[in-house]
Amino acid sequence: MTTEMVAINHEALAKATKRGLFAAGLLAVLSIIEYIVAVEVAEPLIPLLPFVALKGWIILDSFMHIRALWQEDGH
Amino acid sequence: MTTDLSPEVPVEEHGDDHGEYHQDMAFQPRANRIGLWLFIFSECFLFAAFLSARYFTTGTDRPEELNQTLALILTAVLLVSSISAYLAETSIRYNHRRNFKIFTIATIVLGLVFMGGVTIELQEAIHHYPPGTPYGTSYFMLIGLHAFHVLTGLIGLAIVLSLGFRGHYGSSDYWAVEGVVKYWHFVDLAWVIIYPTLYLF
Fold first, then answer.
1. What is the 3-state secondary structure (H, E, C) of B81-114?
2. Residue of A nearest to B187 (CA)
3. With bands split at pLDDT 50, 70 and 90, how would you rate the model's confidence at B170?
4. Record: fold of B69-201
5. Residue of A nearest to B27 (CA)
6. 3-state secondary structure of B133
7. Domain assignments of chain B as residue spans, ordered by start
8. B65-86 burial by CB neighbour count: b if 16+ within 10 A, else e?
């Protein structure tokens, strides 16, 4: 029973880890593009806003699990 | 035996009422989460006030002397620390205690590296745009406010790590870890907005 539970946890852990690393990769790519846009564009305020919004949402959703707030089971 | 729970009588003395008491406690993590989110939302207003002060005083003007390379490195460090914090929380959620400790230590180390970088940054900044100048005022307030949050996050992580080494937390009891890690992600989220505000716009 215990061994089975651990095996299930490992599988779920690997899945959650993969999901987190994917989000982190996305954040890294967006940060690099954001930096290039800021360096290349003369007035970068407007072009950079979508990057800031997208990065913020990825952190809120993938890392902070904000959607758990309005889901029945919490987490 | 009455079902009336008076505040003067300890819960332990109520015998059969324990079931009701534990049922109430089952809602506690959800209540904790809502409380933490309310705290985070209130923090958002604080940061928003400081961010708007920067745009109000200097618009989108920024000095040429800003150390862009160091700021980019600090952004990367904080991003990686957010990943390690996420992995620490995920590990304890699935009862992987060893990884929980490793990733929490990694997060603390990365946080300290970030603080070291901020110190270097502030030493450079004080020569080029001192706190008395319009940009300097916004810069030092925002960086200082954020650094203070990083520091408190590090203290929280250190407490959680210390309790983790003493055998606390598991897959059914990791609220403290979740709370501290969420706070750490908020610190990262704040930087996602502060970084372009001070260095890129």
1. HHHHHHHHHHHHHCCCHHHHHHHHHHHHHHHHHH
2. A59
3. confident
4. Four Helix Bundle (Hemerythrin (Met), subunit A) (1.20.120)
5. A74
6. coil
7. 69-201
8. ebbeeebbebbebbbbbbbbbb
- pTM of the predicted structure, to 2 decimals: 0.84
pLDDT beneath 50, residues of chain A? 1-8, 74
Contacts of B185 in chain A (CB under 8 A): 59, 63-64
Asked if B188 and A63 come within 8 Å (Cβ–Cβ), the reply is yes
Q: Mind telling me how many Å the CA of B83 is from chain A's nearest CA?
A: 6
**What is the pLDDT, as a whole number, of residue B13?**
44
The residue extents of the domains of chain A are 2-70
Q: How many beta-carbon pairs below 8 A join chains A and B? A: 86
What are B46-99's pLDDT values in tens digits?
999 999 988 888 887 777 778 888 888 999 999 999 999 999 999 998 888 899
**ipTM, 2 dp:** 0.82
